[in-house]
Fold each of these.
Amino acid sequence: MTSFKPFLLLLALSTCLLSADALRKVPKLAKPSRELENLYEDVLRRELQDVLNEKLLELRGSQSGVWATKLRRFARLFDSDGDGILTKAEAVGQLVQEVQSALDSETADEITDTIAEAWSSVFVIPDSGIDIDSAAILAIGNAVCNNDDRKRKLRIWARSVFSESDSDLSCKLSRAEHGLTFGMNHVTQSALAASFDAADADGSGEITKAEFLGAMIGYFCNKSEDSALFGP
Ligand SMILES: *[C@@H]1O[C@H](CO)[C@@H](O)[C@H](O)[C@H]1NC(C)=O
Ligand SMILES: [Ca+2]
Ligand SMILES: [Ca+2]
């Protein structure tokens, strides 16, 4: 609520000036008080916007426990030292190391780009990292899911993950292909079957690109439905 202070100060100031004006009836003060009025409106608008944003965030956070839990569960997969802060070194650095040691160099380079892209262009997380339990994680979720451009980036990223996982270029992911990608993303072996089933919407035993995109976008942006895509 500290953000209210400048507004209150200005309100007090303008109230004093306006009533003094009215008492003394000094017409030449009309112009400055008009500017003050504009300034006052401007500050009011911004203060109000801040408060509304804060309230909306709280509301969304409390109404969407499922969503917050999903986002935090995803972030925790990569918090390898378990200190509750997901740093770029953990999310990007370690994954890149694993990828580079497990795959041929061309595939590894492609995947490395996709991982770096996710951190800085899709989710846009500061290099210093993010406090997983803070509201910041919901702010990131809202920034991605409530904005068409950002959501498009999420889809483009998900398509890249799909293509890189589809190693036999069949345009479908088998259990083995799915397992390699999600295993590298720290989903445990015992959770891989449920993760596969979460994406294989029609239960055909293969994940199509449409199913994959639906599952990925749903994981990050569906605020009411939980998903085992990144483990239980
Ligand atoms: C979330 O997922 C459920 C189940 O798939 C679906 O019924 C619902 O429409 C989805 N909500 C949004 C906002 O996409
Ligand atoms: Ca950490
Ligand atoms: Ca399928």
Amino acid sequence: MKELLAALMIWIGANSSLPVPDAVPNVVQVDSVRLACLLEYIEPCDETKLDKTQKWFAYYRPPFARDAGLIVVSDHVDLDTMEGHSVLLHELVHHMQIAAKQTYDIECQAYGLEQQWLHERGSSLQEAFDMDEMYAMIVVMCYEP
Ligand SMILES: [Zn+2]
């Protein structure tokens, strides 16, 4: 896993102005429904209120105490697939943004780089995640590589 994360961070560094930090975050997977409810503030947690894109949720928790940050990914995501790697890439962009103290265009840059990485592999956000075309356009339109 560390080698994969390091390779993805090197790709991000080569395709953006973000420096590649020494620290590699840890990755944990958690129950997809509980994660989606947590991030969408759905209480009590009701699976029927979730849409198809929400099972792909992940987030980045910045370094706490002396750890190197944590990537939390829904257990619906298979981390051995291209889609899983693109989810990790997105969260690694946040890891590198925080390491570089960048606070602007956070999601634009993360989705933009994820889209670019998927394009290089013959896919896209729409295709990989069955994402609505309009939504995918909105999430990447603000990003210029
Ligand atoms: Zn993000």
